[in-house]
Amino acid sequence: MKILGLSGSLRAASINSALLRAAVRLAPPGVSISIFDGLGALQLFNPDDEAAPAAAVIRFRQQVAEADALLIASPEYAHGVTGTIKNALDWLVSFEAFAYKPVAVLNASPRAHHADAALRETLRTMAADIVESASLTIPLLGSVSDEEEILNAPPQAALIRQALAVLYEQVIVKRTVTGASFPLR
Amino acid sequence: MKILGLSGSLRAASINSALLRAAVRLAPPGVSISIFDGLGALQLFNPDDEAAPAAAVIRFRQQVAEADALLIASPEYAHGVTGTIKNALDWLVSFEAFAYKPVAVLNASPRAHHADAALRETLRTMAADIVESASLTIPLLGSVSDEEEILNAPPQAALIRQALAVLYEQVIVKRTVTGASFPLR
Q1: ipTM of the complex model
Q2: Where are the domains of chain B?
Q3: DSSP H helical segments within chain B, as ranges?
Q4: Which of A15, A164, B81, B170 sits at 20 to 30 Å (Cα–Cα) from A5?
Q5: Which of A10, A44, A49 is the mutation pick for testing B, counting most B CBs within 10 A?
């Protein structure tokens, strides 16, 4: 099973990116996670370019299409989603392969409820299959600050393992029920 | 008095951009409105670049600093703000000249309440001075489709005139009360 990770922050020391890198190393057998590295290279969304998007957009869409599930971790900026994650999603609104894609949303900051709620509202509107039981708040901000510290923090690492196990189960169940093959459509 | 218009859509036929172009032509005496043309050229926000931002960001910030007020019109994409407008605001979060800037938010679509509410929440968090009595819903979507039609639609044109008159009054009042000179800080 292939999971594509999307971090809503471009900061090198981003705790959300660190969370995703920790998830890569905590993935259960049978699950491979890759983190998309090109969100910062996407053009700002222009509906006029939908028909002939730039290469960076095509590459992004391709990797989304090939993933069995998405794992999103994104910070809150000024009580809102980041422009970076929303711009990425704007490019997926009309992309058919995104609809019904299983998505888990991890929230590294328990107090950041505005962005988390707005992100889920947008994902629901885009017909994503939000896997709620895998969308956990993982209290990192203020307690751990990088990937190694996350891996060495038992409660946080356990939550990440739990999220991935549930996401895996849900996608497998969905495949079994629908008879679909990976990647799920 | 100088107003800087920001459209959250890069689409050539954007109704929000048309709304701002109509506002330019409906501005009362003493008010000049220019529409910022570079939101689509901004880099995606990266906190690591705050200290030495790219030229496009510097130009944007400069025009914001020189404006006495901002006039924002932005569509709703998938029940959220557009990545384009949020990215622009992300570059202003730590920009001192933005704080206490008078801002009017026009909403061209009465049914698009998610993005309008999220945009205001972010602006409040950024310490913008939202001029509520100038932040009107101007029902355009589905009734008129371009700048000329807006100018020829009496109810809509009247609402735009009203928004601009109120914004002008409020900024003048603020200047009188605080003794500040333009641009207001």
Answers
A1: 0.94
A2: 2-178
A3: 15-26, 55-66, 83-90, 113-125, 147-151, 154-178
A4: B81
A5: A44
